[in-house]
Design a protein that fits this description.
With 180 residues, this protein is α/β, with parallel strands linked by helices. Helix content is 42%, strand content 19%. The strands form two sheets. The protein has a five-stranded parallel β-sheet, sandwiched between helices.
């Protein structure tokens, strides 16, 4: 049984990426799956002066330990103006200052969603290219387009059958890969 940590990169209280990552977590059986919210970890805007004067925040160490304890991660990234959010970039900045290889040995399912037709594909692509710099092994990725049209808030599940089939294939492959 593997320990899988799941979170969205958004700081929105109504995050559709959190809804997507929560759905993914609910579909993983036979493993220890934990969903967290990054907003539970208070990280100031990164700056070298802050780091030098105050050191690393206690919440950073708690988040870092959560990631280190996990065998695999499921992350859903949001997008602001065609890019990852400043909030998520800040989280990565802090984690990488604490330990450059904070994702070493972590197998990752990377997802993204938006209400647009591209499903936050730009932030997904950016994140796919950046996380390996910190040791990540991106096993699978999935861009979920037009979230509000294809995800049922009522049932908290994917309502579009074609997208559900694609999502299930990606998720099954990820779960298979982390068991090896």
């Amino acid at each position: 049984m593997k320990k899988i940590l799941c979170f969205a990169s958004s700081n929105s209280s109504k995050s559709i990426n959190h809804q997507l990552v929560s759905f993914a977590a609910s579909q993983i059986a036979g493993h220890n799956v934990e969903i967290i919210k990054l907003t539970d970890y208070d990280l100031p805007m990164f700056g070298e002066d802050i780091e030098r004067e105050k050191g690393h925040p206690v919440d950073l160490k708690m988040l870092y330990n959560k990631i280190k304890e996990a065998d695999a991660l499921v992350i859903s990234v949001n997008e602001h103006n065609g890019m990852v959010s400043a909030y998520f970039k800040n989280t990565i900045d802090w984690l990488s200052r604490n330990d450059r290889n904070f994702l070493e040995g972590k197998k990752i399912l990377l997802m993204s969603t938006s209400n647009g037709r591209r499903g936050a594909a730009s932030s997904l692509e950016y994140t796919k290219n950046v996380l390996p710099r910190f040791g990540a092994n991106i096993i699978e990725s999935f861009s979920f387009l037009s979230f509000s049209e294809n995800f049922s808030a009522e049932t908290k599940s994917i309502s579009n059958e074609v997208l559900l089939l694609g999502f299930n294939d990606v998720l099954q492959n990820f779960v298979h890969q982390i068991q090896q």
